[in-house]
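Example (one chain per record):
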Amino acid sequence: MNLPRPSPEQPLRALAALFLRVGSTAFGGPAAHMAIMEDEVVRQRGWLSREAFLDLVGASQLIPGPNSTELALHVGYARAGWRGLLVAGTCFIAPAMAIVWLIAWGYVTYGTLPEMAGLLAGVKPVVLAVVTQALWGFARTALSSAMTLAVAVVAGVALLLGVHEFIVLAAAAAVTLLDARVTRGGNPWERPPMALAPPVAPPVAPPFTPPLAITVASSPAALAVSLGKLFLVFLKAGGLLFGSGYVLIAFLRTDLVVRLGWLTESQLLDAIAVGQFTPGPVFTTATFVGYLLAGNSGALVATLGIFLPAFVFVALTAPVLARLRHDPVLRAALSGLNAASLALMAVVCVPLAAQAFARPMLAVPLFLASFVALVHWRANSAWLVIAGASIGLLAD
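Predicted structure:
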């Protein structure tokens, strides 16, 4: 029986509603954002299979720019074509941009960052549970052979040793591509690996606490800030940076503190802190910096500059990715890329775990309860995040 196809507006409305909510509630950085999207897109709505979603994760890791934003763009394109790409990306970025813009106004007006320690103490264990559950699901799909399991292990070790993410991802894709071209089947590497052990939380490292009440330093931006040059600085950042938004720190320091002298070290640290403790893409740090340097026009120009390359890169690669899935040899390259992407997400989770368990008496019960709710009751991650935030505020 052929069911009537939904009108184009229906998936667009659904994409807008989903990514507006995710952009408003997705704390924890790129790995957490990807896990929340997997929960919403694969587990809750069934828009994509886990394998197809992993392909999009791998593709977003292989191009420069904010990974979680690019994943949202890929999901939008897979669901509703070019219009879906634009709707998903805009709706994911807009809530975070608005929140950061408001904080930047308060920072300039009153001289401090808002106190959010209690809220984050409740949110981070929940986010860690969402990521752990997603990583376990990804592992069962991505590590489908001894070869991909070996690639993931080697990639994880290389990343921990400081090898650049792009080199690791490209090497993983090249290894599995070469293996597929040489063996053409019958390879013992393609036998399924042994059953995976039960999921465990990422290791806990010493906690990191972002600055929460720092007085605004006298701004070096009394120098005339050119909106054109500001746009180009952030366009370069969005077009060249690989990995997570945390790589942005060194890049902005070089351009805005050292080379141009537009920011002080203190202001840059405040900007990075805002990107960390607000939901949505970490790259909305650009909104904060832009407002500090040139008011509302600067916030808009900097945000546009840093996110524009992501829209261009995904628009160019998304149609090609759909064709690659049907080529068995290139499919093998994607399997290696997905295994390495899984390792990258696991490694990135280490600092998230460090922050999540900074207050263990609160964090451990929240983590365990959230994990059980996700696995056994398929609870929606957004409601869990809201519940964690409420508990953290009450416990503070």
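Caption: The chain has two domains: 12-145+308-332+341-395, 220-305.
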